[in-house]
Specification:
The chain is mainly alpha-helical. The protein contains 5 helices and no strands. Helix 1 runs antiparallel to helix 2 and helix 1 runs parallel beside helix 3.
């Protein structure tokens, strides 16, 4: 039997599973980052983000439902690598003034990965005529961009200056 050629719908579904796995990994990493952070502002940012991430997972589950597929993740080596880099920063810079800027950088690497995935999924959903999915993915993309901007503001404020001193 000949193998069925894959199309944009298949790619959309595979990428959806990828980001679903990634969001679940992020939920596991955030409490560790909050505990490691030294700045009260950064700790608060990491403690706030799980609620937003849960909302992202809920939206992804809605998208899975819209495409008639079960919500399940697929191992994402990229996010595993990014999370591992964050762990290394926590270990290598523990107790130093450079820890918090390192945590900001690690968190921004996660955000940039998520923005890339959500932006791509949104574009594909639009191409495939999935209007409801577009709205869900666009809402999450906007929140990821806002989180990235908030992290930039934290990083360029006192955290980087303190580490450089």
């Amino acid at each position: 039997m000949a193998k069925q050629p894959k199309d944009l719908n298949d790619l959309f579904f595979e990428t959806l599973k990828d980001i679903y796995f990634a969001e679940k990994q992020i939920l596991r990493a955030l409490p560790k980052m909050a505990k490691a952070a030294q700045s009260p502002e950064l700790t608060a940012a990491f403690e706030k983000h799980p609620d937003e991430t849960e909302t992202h997972v809920d939206r992804l589950e809605q998208v899975f439902e819209l495409v008639g597929k079960p919500a399940r993740g697929k191992t994402c080596e990229a996010i595993l690598g990014i999370v591992e880099e964050g762990k290394e920063i926590m270990e290598d810079f523990a107790g130093t003034a450079a820890l918090d800027p390192g945590l900001v950088a690690a968190a921004q690497a996660v955000e940039h990965y998520e923005m890339a995935r959500y932006g791509t999924l949104r574009a594909w959903a639009q191409q495939l005529g999935m209007k409801e999915a577009v709205a869900l993915l666009d809402a999450t993309l906007g929140e990821e961009k806002a989180t990235d901007a908030a992290l930039s503001k934290l990083g360029t404020a006192a955290l980087n200056q303190k580490a450089a001193a």
